[in-house]
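thread: overnight batch results

M.L. [08:02]
morning all. the overnight job finished for the chain we discussed friday. pasting input first so we're all looking at the same thing
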Amino acid sequence: MAFVQLIEFSTSKPEEVEKIVAEWESSSQGTRTARRVLSTKDLDDPNRYTHIVFFDSYESAMENSNLPETQEYAKKLMALMDGEPVFRNLDVLEEHDL
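M.L. [08:03]
and the structure it wrote out:
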């Protein structure tokens, strides 16, 4: 079953976050299981962001989380966040175009 993980966080350093994300994308190429990512900014709270990450399954998401590149990426991101991120783990029940 397809799976989506939402990562909600606040930061006053969005450019640095995006730099770390780009580094992770480069370093994890060929090993990561994430298939697609949407990076969003909250229009009502300019320091709040959400990354929506798409996977083939929950299991592939956990495999991705355990990669050394992802572990290093997570540590670097935590240092740039204002507080703890919120993770939402979502099974995709239906997907269709409108």
